[in-house]
UniProtKB/TrEMBL annotation:
Gene3D superfamilies: Isopropylmalate Dehydrogenase. GO terms for biological process: isocitrate metabolic process; lysine biosynthetic process; tricarboxylic acid cycle. Its cofactor is Mg(2+). Keywords: Magnesium, Metal-binding, NAD, Oxidoreductase. This is 6368_t:CDS:1. It comes from the Eukaryota.
Length: 372
């Protein structure tokens, strides 16, 4: 799944990482991820560049995504860590989400979101989950082409939104899904069969609603299915799931899914739902991946209700730091972060309130650091 342009970073002993804490608890969990990276043992070192973006920056300057931030990411950084962004539910003139903007500007076309359960005393009865959701990242309704008109017959307003699904974007996202299925299968071979959540052949589930949206979702479905015809994917099973039944089945039978690939909006909804299966949005990382760059971020939002209180769960951001290293070609360093996080969760004595604990952001970060 790693692209040649990204894996060139694996030859370096010092990485330059852009840091975009953005809004709310992003300013608390991003430093936690940095602390973990700096605590890694071994020759790998880091330079960090602090960059601006977010709704709070927009309120101060009128710019949610400064051009300098994008230029620095493109020209000076090996990868980036994003914190969280506040997205007002009401319309704000001139504002557009900076994370959506960066995905488009840097062509980060696949959003990779693992949802993996870790057993602990707090969740002893939790259904085992080991699912990877691949979300197309540049199209669908998120192209933000909307308009509002007045119906001349009724004088009432009517709003329209354009949805875009292209063969190009669908094919490359599908390739990420099938490559991920092969990679996960290789990694599982080192795990005893009785310890695996997924025990069968690698499988890709294509999510769509082509029974209703026969043109747009129909093109998505046909294009992703066509990827499976490549000889290299002959051992990968292909399955389909309508998006509404996907949500239903995901909650009842999460162990039925290996790799799930979905258009932008469906993938956004499904991956947030999958976070509930593993305990909290505060546990789930994601990677925005393109051919030339990777930007990782926790799946959670800016959580203004707890911002500044040292209550935010740093694990999603810390796991996102691991994902960043994994996609830049440093799997051993990434694994050490994942193992340290898993050890803290399994012990269960140092966890934040969202997963049943009483610890602070700083205390959880230190506990993970100690496991390194």
């Amino acid at each position: 799944m790693l692209r040649r342009a990204l894996t060139t970073a694996a030859n370096k002993t010092k990485l330059t990482i852009g840091l975009i804490p953005a809004d709310g608890i992003g300013k608390e969990v991003t430093p936690a991820a940095v602390a973990i990276l700096e605590s890694l043992k071994g020759p790998l070192q880091f330079d960090f560049i602090n960059l601006d973006a977010g709704f709070e920056h927009f309120q101060k300057t009128g710019k949610a995504l400064p051009e300098k931030t994008v230029e620095t990411l493109e020209n000076a950084c090996d990868g980036a860590l994003f914190g969280a962004v506040s997205s007002p539910s009401h319309r704000v003139e001139g504002y557009s989400s900076p994370i959506v903007g960066m995905r488009k500007r840097l062509d980060l076309y696949a959003n990779v979101r693992p949802a993996i359960s870790v057993p602990s005393a707090q969740n002893a009865n939790q259904t085992p989950v080991d699912m990877l959701i691949i979300r197309e990242n540049t199209e669908c309704l998120y192209i933000k082409q909307e308009k509002i008109e007045t119906d001349p017959a009724s004088s009432l307003k009517v709003a329209y939104a354009t949805r875009k699904i292209s063969e190009h974007a669908s094919r490359r996202c599908g390739k990420v899904a099938f490559e991920s299925a092969l990679k996960r299968d290789r990694l599982r071979q080192s795990v005893p069969l009785n310890q695996r959540v997924w025990k069968g052949k690698p499988k890709v589930t294509i999510v769509h609603k082509s029974n209703v949206l026969s043109i747009t979702d129909g093109l998505w479905r046909e294009t992703v299915r066509a990827v499976a015809n490549d000889e290299k994917y002959k051992n990968v099973d292909v399955n389909e799931q309508l998006v509404d039944s996907m949500v239903y089945r995901m909650y009842l039978e999460p162990q039925a899914f290996d790799v799930v690939v979905a258009p932008n909006m469906y993938g956004d909804i499904i991956s947030d739902g999958a976070a509930a299966l593993v305990g909290s949005l505060g546990l789930v990382p994601s990677a925005n991946v393109g051919d030339k760059f990777v930007l990782t971020e926790p799946v959670h939002g800016s959580a203004p209700d707890i911002a500044g209180q040292n209550k935010a769960n740093p694990i999603a951001a810390i796991r996102s730091a691991g994902l960043l290293l994994e996609h830049l070609g440093y799997p051993d360093e990434a694994l050490s972060i994942y193992n340290a996080v898993d050890a803290v969760i399994k012990e269960g004595s140092v966890l934040t309130p969202d997963v049943g604990g009483r610890a602070t952001t700083d205390q959880v970060t230190k506990a993970i650091m100690d496991k390194l």
